[in-house]
């Protein structure tokens, strides 16, 4: 009898060690995997599904722990984002509390990095400034278009997204970048993609009509070819409003504004600004890639109708400026 006891103790210790091992996380990688827990799923089905997705090590261990912890009958249905870097007790705790609720936010074409940061923080998705200050070098290897970028401006694809309250900033920015990689990146040419994206970002802010956008694209390309300043008013607004069109209190441009010292000032400096001034949509990107040739050298937007007014000569353009803008 006494000889059996040590073996029982040893077997118990081994069993406990194995049980504790199967409670450990599957991986150290902080990735998340979506899983839907339907209302009709029992604890055994949930355990099997989690093991199948490699979110937990053992469905049996999950069952035992959930039963003895009193959680087996309080696991809540819903859509979850679970990580194999979480332990089985943590997974059970998440399922007991229920899924985090997400919200949908639409970002229109032409929003800027600061606009997006403001809208996300206003909705409680991230803390103010965290998107603006996110170190993009930490994820540049996953997104080839970011390798020489100083900012994610231009690469945050405008669309409707769903976010959880108090999300990780890395998860938020990756949603935008994944959408850009899928919907915009395949359209852009190899070594010249940044220039085309900068042009698209200006067209997005300047011209609302698709057919006019291609004409304006032709004008901008023509000016670049002859070394003529682009004189894009939206770049002045970008400077004046410190990169935020949504919250800018006084976006209207005065004559003195075109003298401000900035590399983004396309009145003072010929060529393209150093980076995009907005996050353009597909149509503006297409316009930058498909410029239409015309006799026009100048254009402006009617502030009332938003119609683009074109001019061939500077004299004609100055007359239009006086007529439509009072300048």
UniProtKB/TrEMBL annotation:
Q: Name one GO biological process term.
A: peptidoglycan biosynthetic process
Record has Transmembrane as a keyword: yes
List the Pfam families.
Answer: YceG (PF02618)
Q: Which GO terms describe its molecular function?
A: lytic endotransglycosylase activity
Signal peptide limits: none
The organism's superkingdom is given as Bacteria
EC nos: 4.2.2.29
Q: Fetch the InterPro entries from UniProt.
A: MLTG-like (IPR003770)
Give the PANTHER family listed for this entry.
Answer: ENDOLYTIC MUREIN TRANSGLYCOSYLASE
Which family, according to the similarity comment?
Answer: Belongs to the transglycosylase MltG family.
Q: State the function annotated in the UniProt record.
A: Functions as a peptidoglycan terminase that cleaves nascent peptidoglycan strands endolytically to terminate their elongation.
Q: What is this protein called?
A: Endolytic murein transglycosylase
- Species in which this protein is naturally found: Candidatus Harrisonbacteria bacterium RIFCSPLOWO2_02_FULL_45_10c
């Amino acid at each position: 009898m006494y000889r059996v006891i040590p073996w029982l103790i040893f077997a118990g210790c081994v069993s406990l060690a194995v049980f504790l091992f199967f409670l450990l996380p599957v991986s150290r990688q902080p990735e998340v995997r979506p899983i839907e827990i339907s209302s009709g799923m029992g604890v055994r089905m949930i355990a099997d599904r989690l093991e199948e997705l490699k979110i937990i090590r053992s469905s049996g261990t999950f069952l035992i722990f959930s039963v003895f912890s009193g959680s087996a009958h309080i696991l809540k249905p819903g859509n979850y984002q679970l990580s194999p870097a979480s332990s089985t007790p943590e997974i059970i705790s998440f399922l007991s509390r229920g899924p985090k609720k997400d919200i949908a936010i639409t970002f229109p074409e032409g929003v800027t990095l600061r606009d997006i940061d403001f809208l996300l923080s206003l909705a409680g998705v991230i803390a103010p400034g965290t998107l603006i200050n996110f170190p993009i070098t930490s994820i540049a290897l996953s997104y080839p278009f970011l390798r020489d970028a100083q900012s994610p401006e231009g690469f945050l694809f405008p669309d409707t997204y769903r976010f959880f309250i108090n999300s990780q900033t890395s998860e938020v920015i990756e949603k935008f970048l994944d959408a850009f990689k899928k919907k915009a990146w395949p359209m852009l040419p190899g070594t010249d993609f940044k220039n085309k994206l900068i042009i698209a970002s200006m067209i997005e802010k300047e011209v609302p009509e698709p057919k006019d956008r291609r004409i304006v694209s032709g004008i901008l390309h023509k000016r670049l070819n002859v070394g003529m300043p682009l004189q894009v008013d939206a770049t002045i607004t970008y400077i004046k409003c410190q990169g935020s069109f949504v919250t800018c209190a006084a976006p209207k441009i005065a004559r003195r504004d075109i003298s401000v010292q900035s590399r983004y000032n396309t009145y003072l400096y010929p060529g393209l600004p150093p980076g995009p001034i907005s996050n353009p949509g597909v149509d503006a990107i297409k316009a930058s890639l498909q410029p239409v040739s015309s006799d026009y050298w100048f254009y402006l937007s009617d502030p009332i109708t938003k119609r683009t007014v074109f001019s061939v000569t500077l004299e004609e353009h100055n007359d239009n400026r006086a007529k439509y803008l009072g300048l």
